[in-house]
Structure formats: structure tokens, C-alpha cells
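Work Package 3 (structural annotation) set out to generate three-dimensional models for the target panel prioritized at the project kickoff. During this period the team completed the workflow that converts sequence records into C-alpha cells, so that structures can be stored uniformly alongside our sequence database. As a representative example, we reproduce one entry of 280 residues exactly as it appears in the project archive.
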Amino acid sequence: MTARIIDGKAIAETLRDSLALRVAKLPYKPGLRVVRVGDDPASGVYVRSKDRAAAAAGFDSATLHLPANTTQAALLAQVQALNADPAVDGILVQLPLPRHIDADAIIAAIDPEKDVDGFHPLNNGHLSTAQPKLVPCTPKGAMYLLKSTGVALAGKRAVVLGRSQIVGRPMAQLLLAADCTVTIAHSRTRDLAAECRRAEILVAAVGKPELVRGDWIAPGAVVIDVGINRTADGRLVGDVCYAEAVHSAGWLTPVPGGVGPMTIACLLENTLEAAEARRR
């Protein structure tokens, strides 16, 4: 068996094109502001990709780059100013933040209606009660990729490897809403490999390079690899060993070129949805 590859680049491009058409019909440009604190290299690459995608789709997008020694009070003041700015529809504070800043406090300070990352406690609550508003971008993108396969999700056994508030937990909620039977596995799970082998849908989001081996994957399973890791020899790899998984999975996302492009496309979709909701 050789897995069919889920082309996240192509699916993201289709979504971005459709968003650009919607934006072109509006009498305003949806406003997105990204706040970056410090000089984390990975954050810099990601933010630049967001800026390019937003500009290409016709959004009013800008990045506010603050120094690493920015105080928590100063960052909170910046967030409050963006909350109050009527030209701003979406606010994203790029993570990770410097250690002296409480990320939870910053996220909680963002206006939930402008929280296009979907991390605010109110947006988490809406998702957990099956009344989603702004959904975290990476899980939302992963659902697009799952649906692109044409595989019926209802009733499938799904395993989410990872329990973060950013990916693992919201991913499980979205799969539950799609009528999957969901297990969340994590670092304390006994016999992690056995849990993964039970999955008809496997979502790996733990940030450990090539943790999931080919023999952890049930034949024909749909595998969504959320991880993106830089190895000691400079390779960019996922949480799944691609070279092994491609011989056991039925469907598989590559790294790079799988979930990553969808995260940015879904950020734009969230921003457009926030803009439309604020102007109703």
C-alpha cells in the first residue's frame, strides 16, 4: 500500500482564492493585526508568510513588531488599543511570547470577537459546547484536509496525539462534532503505539520529530501530521515518520506542505468571518 498524499498547499490555495473573491466584493478590507514580541526565528518566518497571504487576498494586514523586553503591561496596552480600533477585525498575538509575559493573560485580554486565533476562553467554551464561533486555525485546517479525502468521518475511531489547548483539545472537539469516536493520547498514555494502531483517523500534534513510526499506523488510516520540527541535521520533519507511514497509511499529509498552509488560510477565513460578524 502507498498512501495518497493530501496536498495542503493546493487546498489552501483554493481556500485563499475563494476568500479573495469574497473580500473583493466588500466595501471594506478586513483588518488583521499580528503582534510579534521578540525575534524568535520560526515566528519571523511564519509571520512573514501570514503577511504575504493576507496582502494577496486583499486584506488590510500589518504586523506590529515589539522588542523582546516589552513588558506585560505594555503588551496588554497594545492589545487594548487594537480592541478599541474599529479598523481592526482580527488580532493575533504570535506565540511563543518571552518567558516574562503571561501568555494566558494576553490571550484573555483580546476581544473574543477579534480573537482570530480562536484561543480566548470564551471561544474555547463555544467550541466545547458545539456552538463554535472563531475556531483555532490549525485544527480547523486539519478538518478541511480530512474532508478533502472524501472519507466519511461519522463513526470513525479517531486518535488525537497531543492535548494542547492550541491543537489537541480543539481538534478532538471538532472530530466529536463530526460524529467520530475520539481518544486523546498524550505523554502519560500507556502503550501509545497500541492506541495509535486503533485509529482510523490519526492526528499527530506533539512536537516530537518522527515519533509515530510506520508500524504504529493501521493499514489505510487517514494520518494528519500537525508537527513541524527541525532535526539536528537541518531537516524539516513532522511528528510522523513519513518514509515509513507512506507504506501503511491510506491518506497522509506531508511536512512541509500539509497542515501549515491550511493554518494561514484558516486565519484569513477567521478574520473575514470576524469582519462580517462585526458589521452585521
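The chain has a mean pLDDT of 96.
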